[in-house]
Amino acid sequence: MMQAELEDLSLQNSANNAQRISTLKSEINAILHHEELFWRQRPRSIWLQAGDKNTKLFHQRESQRSWKNHISGIQDTDGGWHTSDEQIAHVAEQYFKELFTPTNPTDMGSVLDAVDRRVTLDMNNALLQKYTPDEVRRALFQMHPSKSPGPDGMSPFFFQKYWNIVGFDVTKAILLKTILPTIISEAQSAFVPNRLITDNTTVAYELLHRMRNNRNGKVGQMVVKLDISKAYDRVEWGFLVYKARYFPNTSFLDAELGNNPSFVWCSLLAARDIIYAGSRWQIGDGRKIHMATHNWLPHPPVFINPPPVNMTVHDLINGESKQWDRGKLFATFDRRTCETILTMPLNHQTTQDRLVWMENKTHTFTVRSAYQVALCLQQPNHAEHSLAQAQGNTWKRIWKLNVPPKVRTFLWRACSGCLPTRQNLHKKRVKIEEHCELCAHQTETVSHVLWECPFARNVWASFKGSIQKCSNEPTDFLFLFQKMWQKLSLGELEKWATTAWWIWHARNKVYFERVQLHPKVIFESAIKWLEVYQRLNEAQRV
User: Which of 22, 221, 243, 503 has the fewest CB atoms within 10 Å, i.e. the most exposed one?
Assistant: First the structure.
C-alpha cells in the first residue's frame, strides 16, 4: 500500500508532495531495515554489514544454506536407507547414543599417566567454585550478537539487550573460557588466537609432497584417510614443520627455496618480498640484524666502507656504555646515516631483536595493509588519478564519510573521473554525442553534470550556507571535492556528497526513464535519505 502510494506521488512530480514522499520513504526504509536485519541473521552472514539493500543476498544465502543442510535420507549401520523425518531422527539418535556411550575401559591409569597435566590444582578449584551472575554476564557479552542461537531461536543479542530483565532467570556459567588458553595445545590451531584452521592444510600438503618425492628405498610410507567421528578424539603422528624442512639453521626471512620445494613453500616464499617491504627491525641486542641486508633504518644506509656480510648491528654498540659506538659509526656510514642512527634509542638491549610491521598505526600485520604493499611493489602508480597522487589522504576522507556505501563508491568514481558520462563513453568509442542532454550546450563531463549544468545548479540553489559562495566555473571534480573539504563542515560535506549522488540519479532517470524530478524534490530526497541512513546506522551500532 505505502509503496503504491509512493509511486503515485512520485509520478505526479509536484513539490507539494515532498513532505508526504519523505514520510513514506522513512516508513518504508524502517520496515526494509528490520526485514534486512532478520534475513541477515537467518543465514548467519555476520561478515557483511546490513545496509544498501543486501536483503536479496541474505535471502539467497539462507536458501542456499537450507538446501545445503537438508538431509533427504540417511543410512543406518546395517546399510538400510531411511527417508522419513521420524526414521532419520531415530537413526541419528541411535548413532550418537552408541558413539558417546562409554566402553568402561579397565586400565585408564596407564593412559592418563602418559598425558601431560594441563589443568592445575588452582584451576580445578576455580572451576569447582560457585559461579556468580557477574561472571555469567561477562561470558554472555563476549559472544557475537548474531551467533549461537539457543533452542528457542534467540541469539545472544536478545539476552544482551534485555539482560536487566531476563538476566536473573537465564544465568548459566561458562567458566572454562578463562582457562582455555592454557589447556589448548598449539597443534589445535583452530582454537589458538592468531592461527587459522587452514594451517593444518598446509602441513598436510607438505606431508604429501614429501611422500610423493620419497619413493626410493625399502621402507615405504602411506597415507591413511581417517573419518574421525568423535570431536574429542585425537590422532597422533610424526609430522613435518616448515622450519625443520627448509630453514633449520636460519629464519624465514633468510631462507632459500631449496631443492624440490613444494608448491605451498614456493607460494610462501614468493610473499616474502611483501614482508621485507612493509616491515622494519626493532633493535634489541642487535644480534639478529644484519647491517647491510636487513631493513632497520627509515632509509637505506649509505656506507663509506662496505662492511662484512655477517656484520650485525650488535657490532655497532659499545659493550661497556651500552650506547652507539660513534667511532665505528662514522668510520662505516656517511654523515646523514650516522645522524639517523644516533637518534634511535637503545632501550631494549635485554630483549631480542624483533620485526615490526610498519604499514599501520597498530604495527599489526593485516591482509589489507599487505595488499596495499603488494600493489605498490607491482605497480607504484596503481589506479591513481593523476591529481590524487599529491593528495593521498583524499581517498581516506571519502571512505570515512558517514554516508550510504553507494555514495562513497560514487564519490570515489567521480573523483577518479570514471563515471559513464557522455564524454567518457565517447572516449571509449561508444557512438554517442558528447553534449549534455539536459542543457544541450556543454560537453557532459563529471564536473559539468554534477556541478556546472543549470540542472545541477537549480538543485544546489536549495543548499544553504558556504556552498552558495563557491564558483561554478569549469573545474576538475577531484579539485572540487578537495575545495569542499576545506570550506564545509563534515556534516555539510556529507550532505553535499549525498546530493551529488541524487543529481546523478536524477540525471539517469531523465536519460533512461524520461522522468525529470523537480530540483526541490531532488534536494529534499537527498537530505532525508541521508538522515534515515545515519539514524539507522547509529541505532545498529548501539
Answer: 221
- Mind listing the pLDDT tens digit for each residue in 396-455? 889 999 999 999 999 999 998 889 999 999 988 888 889 998 888 889 999 999 999 999
User: Would you state the torsion angle of the CA atoms of residues 119, 121, 126, 129, taken in this order, to the nearest 10 degrees?
Assistant: 120
For 477-529, what is each residue's pLDDT tens digit?
888 898 888 888 999 999 999 999 999 999 999 999 888 899 999 999 999 99
Residues 371, 378: Cα–Cα separation, whole Å: 10
**Domain coordinates in residue numbering, the chain:** 2-67, 271-357, 388-541
* 173, 128 contact by CB (below 8 A): no
Q: Strand 81-82 to strand 74-75: parallel, antiparallel, or no bridges (unpaired)?
A: antiparallel
| Element holding 537 (H helix, E strand) | helix 519-541
DSSP code, position 177: G
Of 530, 521, 22, which Cα lies nearest the Cα of 5? Answer: 22
Let me know: does 157 contact 540? Beta carbons within 8 Å: no
The CA distance from 46 to 37, in Å, is 10
Name residues whose C-beta falls within 8 Å of residue 486's C-beta, 6 or more positions apart in sequence.
Answer: none
Is the pTM higher than 0.90? The answer reads no
What is residue 26's DSSP assignment? H
User: Which amino acid is it at 301?
Assistant: P
Mean pLDDT, rounded, for 62-69: 72
Separation of alpha carbons 290 and 258, rounded Å? 22
Whose cell is 656484520? That residue is 311
CA gap 521, 499 in Å, rounded: 11
Nearest-CA neighbor of 353 among 316, 327, 328?
Answer: 316
Phi–psi pair at 419, nearest 5 degrees: -70, 145
> 544465502: which residue's cell?
61
In terms of Cα–Cα distance, which of 304, 301, 276 is closest to 313? 301
Ramachandran quadrant class, 148 (left: phi over 0; alpha: psi -120 to 50; beta: rest)? left
> Which residues in 198-234 are b (16+ Cβ under 10 Å) and which e?
eeeebbeebbebeeeeeeeeeeeeeeeeeeeeeeeee
- In sequence order, the 6+-apart residues with CB closer than 8 A to the CB of 383 are 375, 416
Return all residues near 81 (Cβ < 8 A) that are at least 6 apart: 73, 74, 75
CA-to-CA separations, 9 to 502, 510, 526, 530, in angstroms, rounded: 18, 17, 17, 21
